[in-house]
Amino acid sequence: MIDLPVLGSPAPNAVPEPLTPSASGGPRVFIETYGCQMNVSDSEIVLGVLSANGYGLADKVEDADVILLNTCAIRDNAERKIHERLGHLRVHKKRNNNLVVGVLGCMAERLRTKLLEKELVDLVVGPDEYRRMPELVTAAMGGERGIAVKLSKVETYDDIEPFRTEGISAWISIMRGCDKFCTFCVVPFTRGRERSRSLPLITDELLRLQDAGFKEVTLLGQNVDSYLDESTGADFADLLIASAKAVPSMRIRYTTSHPQDMSDRVIAAMAEYDNICKYIHLPIQSGSDRILELMNRTYTVDHYLGRIARIREMMPDCALSTDIIAGFCTETAEDHQATLDVMRTVRYDGAYMFAYSPRENTKAWKMGDDVPAEVKNQRLQEIIELQNDISREINLTEVGRQHHVLVEGPSKRNNEEWKGRTDTNKTVIFPHEDQRGYIVGDTVRCTITHSNSATLFGKLD
Ligand code: 5AD
Ligand code: SF4
Fold first, then answer.
1. Model confidence over 378-412: pLDDT tens digits?
2. Which end of the chain is more exposed for a tag (fewer CB within 10 A), N or C?
């Protein structure tokens, strides 16, 4: 999971993110991460385990002895991308017979031995088996292909120090797995049962991140609202408060919330602590109660809107984003209109919008996939267009406002311009002014001068 969702941008599950710190002693590993932020965090755990066992890191694929793809299985197109990538890697395998290619993550867990049928793949390792990476990679280097896909009820990698590249923003997984079983979703099958890390170990990690110069952390879980530290009984609100107090100078973010489980205490904790960012990603999925029921989302639109009302009452300036699926089984034109209506009512700052992709072995798989592809895509297009209009309108109201912007560095397009993010998770581009003496990781004040649906543009105050 990639940079934090940029509000109003397309799906986060798109860009491969190579983690390529500098090389060291042993065999060299190159890891490419696909999918959600949890995968980025997992790749850091895999590198943590491997580097503690003498492995080095390759800067590019050509220099690697081991190439790992940490994969996503959430939609069919995510998997198709990996198959394509494996096809490209064949060239490297031909050039270097000893090259080890491994598939990790959700697709490894879902497809298991089917992946080993591809002559290219030497290793298949699921999300709960990363402690075994050194042993498995060594065996694969000796010509023994391996598979490790057992799911665990307890593995949290609590004691593993993730290998983080330098930066200002870090991820911490606070829990693993999901027990929600939304009928469309493979995650409960690929990541197993929900389990939480211990609160004191999370706050210890936060302190180490602060000492290492990180300025922002995102607490990660499929459903953070069901976080529970079993030894102390601390819930997610307690964890947020403990985190905000442990590192008062760092920005705290989190994702993902569940509308059924998000408590008033969580909202109150966010409102109380300045360093908890005022941004919530609250997936609605559909605006039709009938579809929500078929999805087993366990809430109604009314309940959802009640949560939004509470958030706005306690934090009027809090930014909101959501996930929406277009064309779930049996979705009618009326259901679709209901989704557009909710979008108009809530007016999200941004959204991740997807066409429904049936996944084998899920409950929804058995319900069929009866919305024709053209209709699905047409509805998705309408959803995207509406969201772009709303994002553009909301961002126009930002013009003239001031924001504290955490400086991330030069913008991609132009070195003379830098970018950073607001507390509300919006990207701000501003002209770089060397003489002002700020550096990456500083917080500057900007006034917004203009905007579009995805980005704010500002000048330094
Ligand atoms: N098809 C389309 N979108 C899906 N998501 C999860 N499973 C599917 C699927 N089968 C979306 C949901 C979820 C986000 C991470 O991905 O909107 O919140
Ligand atoms: Fe999937 Fe639902 Fe769990 Fe999110 S809450 S990971 S959509 S099952």
1. 999 999 999 999 999 999 999 999 999 999 999 98
2. C
